[in-house]
From TrEMBL:
GO terms for biological process: protoporphyrinogen IX biosynthetic process. It is an enzyme of class 1 (oxidoreductase). Homodimer. GO terms for molecular function: metal ion binding; protoporphyrinogen oxidase activity. Belongs to the HemJ family. This is Protoporphyrinogen IX oxidase. It is a multi-pass membrane protein. Its EC number is 1.3.99.-. Its main location: membrane. Pfam families: UPF0093 (PF03653). Its cofactor is heme b.
Length: 183
C-alpha cells in the first residue's frame, strides 16, 4: 500500500511540476511580447512577469519537482527491480533531458531578474518552440511508463510517431506565429 501511495504522490507532483514548467516558459514568451509596447506599459508588465516567474519557480515548480523526484527515488528504493527494466532506463534517460530543460528554465528565471526590465535576447519564436520541449518530454515519459515492455518491442514505431508529433507541433507553432504577425 505504501508503494501505491508514493506512486500517487509522484503522479500528483509530476502534474504540478509540469504545470509550473509549462506556464513558466509562457511567461518568458509574454515578457518577450512586450518588446513592441510603450515604455510605461512595457516596464509595468515586465516587472509583473519577472515577479510571476520567480514566484512560480520558487513556490510551485521547484518544490513540486523536488517532491516528485523524492517520491520517484522512494519508489525505486521500495521496488529496486525497476532498475533492471529497459523501459525504466529509457524513462530515466528522458528525465535527464527534463533536468537539462529545468536547468535552462532556471537560468532564464535568473536572467529575467538580472535584466531589470530590459529585453530578452532570445527570439520570440525560439521561446515559443522551447515552450513545447516540456510537452515532448511529458509525452515520452508517459508513453514509456504506460507501454512499458512494448516500448522495447515497438521502439521504431514509437520514435517515428514521436517525430511526426514533434513536427506537427512545431509547424503549428510556426503557423500560429505567422498568422499572428499578419494581423
Amino acid at each position: 500500500m505504501l508503494y501505491t501511495i508514493i506512486k500517487a504522490l509522484h503522479i500528483i507532483f509530476m502534474v504540478s511540476y509540469f504545470a509550473g514548467i509549462f506556464y513558466l516558459v509562457r511567461i518568458f514568451v509574454y515578457y518577450k511580447d512586450t518588446d513592441e509596447f510603450a515604455d510605461d506599459k512595457k516596464r509595468i508588465l515586465r516587472e509583473q512577469y519577472t515577479f510571476m516567474a520567480r514566484r512560480l519557480w520558487n513556490i510551485i515548480t521547484v518544490p513540486a519537482g523536488v517532491i516528485m523526484a523524492v517520491c520517484g527515488l522512494v519508489m525505486i528504493f521500495l521496488n529496486p527491480g525497476l532498475m533492471k527494466m529497459g523501459w525504466f532506463h529509457l524513462k530515466l534517460t528522458f528525465l535527464i533531458g527534463l533536468a537539462v530543460y529545468h536547468y535552462w528554465c532556471w537560468k532564464k528565471v535568473l536572467h529575467l531578474k538580472a535584466l531589470h526590465g530590459n529585453t530578452l535576447p532570445t527570439a520570440n519564436i525560439k521561446l515559443r518552440q522551447a515552450n513545447e520541449i516540456a510537452t515532448f518530454i511529458l509525452f515520452l515519459v508517459v508513453f514509456t511508463v504506460i507501454l512499458k515492455s512494448m516500448v522495447i518491442e515497438y521502439w521504431w514505431q514509437l520514435i517515428a510517431g514521436f517525430f511526426v508529433l514533434v513536427f506537427l507541433i512545431m509547424m503549428t507553432v510556426k503557423l500560429v506565429n505567422k498568422n499572428k504577425k499578419n494581423k
